[in-house]
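User: Hey, my collaborator sent me this sequence without any context and asked if I could get a structure. I don't really work with proteins. Can you help?
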Amino acid sequence: MAAGEELTLSGHIQHHLTNAKMCTVDGSVAFNKACSEAGFWTWHIDTLAWSIGLGILFLWIFRSVANKATVGVPGKLQCFVEMVVELVATNVRDTFHGKSKLIAPLALTIFVWVFLMNLMDLVPVDFLPAFAGWVGATFFGMDSHDVYMKIVPTTDINMTAALAIGVFILMIGYSIRIKGVMGFVKELTLHPFSSKNVVLQIILIPANLLLETIALVAKPFSLALRLFGNLYAGEMIFILIGAVGLMQLPLHFVWAVFHILVIVLQAFVFMMLTIVYLSMASSDNH
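Assistant: No problem. I've predicted the 3D structure and written it out in structure-token form, which is a compact way to encode the shape of the chain:
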């Protein structure tokens, strides 16, 4: 948006939904609008910064609690952490039927990290973007309208897709580890349709491969799009509420109270689906 141009409602929404970008154009580092022609290799630096920062915060809090844990009367933070750990451990025991020391720490990391990223949705939508615009204008001589800042990493499809791809790689790894390469190939080609007749079994391979591949690839797609869609829609409503003036305060409070359920639920669903998918990948029923 050019300097002095009136900020319309659509421009306001677009500004809040635009990531801060960094890329390389003609051998030099460029930012934001200059990255429109950069293609795939464009870094969303706000998503990276907030997600990494929240991940470090999660590790620091849990490590501090672990180092200061007492067997007597625990503090409030220790009680909260113990409740979260017990919740995750119980769901892993009830859902994951294989044997792996990785699943419980992975599930805990996913639940808390996604929850913290979702929780950023409760920060007033204009506060940090306006602060980033002020910093850009004051210290770097930029037009504040050309400074972007999205503080909710899970409203960026690149972040949710990265999480889902990580789970997908683990699914493939566990399948090959438990079943072997040939067992994994047979699972893709000899199910769900099977026959004792070898010729008919060979004929059914293309149909089985198509169906099993779709089912396999649909899992990370569902993980990424479900989390992104729910948080993006919630952020959009916060932005629309923020555009109504002083009346936004009571409306913001009402929507924030409801949205707390969405924030927790989406983190829990992502964790549970990860456990379920890895449990399915670790089973050797055929």
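In plain terms: The chain is about 70% helix and 5% strand. You can pass these tokens on to your collaborator as they are.
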